[in-house]
Structure to design on (370 residues):
């Protein structure tokens, strides 16, 4: 374990780190006295989500479609009640506030198997005594605050052997203590791999490859989503966690469909995209009276936004294409096309250029996504 730090003392370190984080994330602000990081662009018409925890477990996940505010405590220590109250006041909401205490939801959390592996413990700045692992040890089942695991392996296994032990502890359904999630043939799964802070990007990439190879060959599991990164850190710990989620089983036990659950991993639920488009169109309507049937770009944008919010992205693209095609038979009521007029014999005109151009861009988004 390395005991060297750029900042050897923890005094003032958290506040200094928060000031730096705000500097390179201009959409965020800092209430330094209460140690609150909050989103300056949050929408008070939405429910405000607030969470927090000990510093050293970054990132904080504050921003659009994420938390409205985060409340960090000292290193590995919870925030105070005073901080939490101040956070609620910093991001007031017309719809109320939810304090998130690391809960994934019952249906989802019951379908996750997870375990961490540690090459050595992290070192907290300013502390002199730490538990350490020997150079010839690897520990399984460790916690993010240097909590001891359930098994020390010595001599250290090879990477493939370590991954085999990790997956056996997660997926062996014959183990009465750990085999509590059933993975049926055809169930869709997610793989989450979190770097605790001290693993290199090079090794994390190789780790994911080994995990995927063994999941397929040994367990007949091919994850439909793979996420790897600093999901929750533990200062400089050379450690990682592996989680396998049975997304199909989670969908069977909650109000969200499997496609909706997957959409959260793909950048947010489609309904939110549709809501964002509708909000943008509402703002646009302050500057133009154009509506469907006026032979303008709105003949594409309005159907796209409405269908996407109600049904999904694919349906939104189909609506955009139909809307653009429909402009071929419309009489222009607004915009430059009114200078030319419609067809005298009710024959088709070329489509409205704005509507057609928007449709091509939207269709391109679908092709790129696919």
């Amino acid at each position: 374990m390395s005991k060297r730090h750029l900042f050897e003392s923890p005094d003032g370190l958290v506040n200094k780190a928060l000031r730096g984080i705000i500097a390179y994330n201009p959409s965020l602000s800092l209430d330094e006295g209460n140690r609150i990081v909050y989103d300056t662009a949050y929408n008070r018409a939405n429910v405000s989500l607030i969470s927090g925890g000990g510093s050293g477990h970054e990132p904080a996940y504050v921003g659009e479609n994420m938390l409205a505010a985060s409340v960090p405590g000292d290193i590995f220590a919870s925030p105070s009640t005073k901080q939490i109250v101040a956070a609620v006041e910093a991001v007031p909401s017309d719809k109320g506030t939810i304090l998130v205490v690391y809960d994934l939801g019952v249906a989802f959390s019951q379908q996750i198997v997870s375990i961490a592996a540690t090459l050595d413990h992290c070192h907290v700045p300013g502390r002199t005594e730490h538990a350490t692992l020997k150079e010839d040890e690897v520990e399984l089942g460790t916690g993010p605050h240097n909590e001891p695991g359930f098994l020390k392996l010595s001599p250290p296994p090879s990477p493939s052997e370590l991954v085999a032990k990790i997956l056996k502890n997660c997926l062996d359904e014959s183990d009465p203590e750990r085999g509590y999630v059933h993975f049926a043939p055809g169930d869709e799964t997610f793989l989450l791999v979190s770097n605790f802070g001290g693993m290199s990007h090079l090794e994390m990439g190789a780790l994911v490859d080994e995990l995927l190879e063994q999941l397929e060959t040994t367990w007949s599991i091919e994850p439909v989503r793979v996420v790897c990164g600093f999901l929750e850190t533990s200062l400089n710990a050379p450690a990682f966690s592996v989680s396998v989620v049975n997304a199909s089983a989670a969908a069977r036990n909650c109000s969200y469909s499997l496609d909706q659950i997957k959409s959260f991993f793909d950048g947010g639920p489609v309904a939110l995209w549709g809501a964002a488009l509708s909000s943008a169109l509402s703002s646009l309507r302050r500057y133009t009276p154009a509506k469907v049937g006026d032979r303008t770009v709105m003949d594409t944008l309005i159907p796209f936004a409405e269908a996407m919010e109600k049904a999904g992205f694919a349906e939104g693209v189909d609506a955009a294409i139909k809307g653009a095609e429909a402009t071929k038979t419309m009489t222009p009521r607004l915009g430059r096309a009114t200078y030319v007029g419609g067809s005298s014999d009710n024959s088709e005109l070329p489509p409205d250029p704005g509507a057609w151009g928007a449709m091509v861009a939207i269709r391109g988004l679908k092709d790129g996504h696919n």
User: Anything to note?
Assistant: The first strand starts at residue 28 and ends at 31. The longest helix spans residues 201-219. Residues 13-99 form a domain with the Rossmann fold fold (CATH 3.40.50.10440).
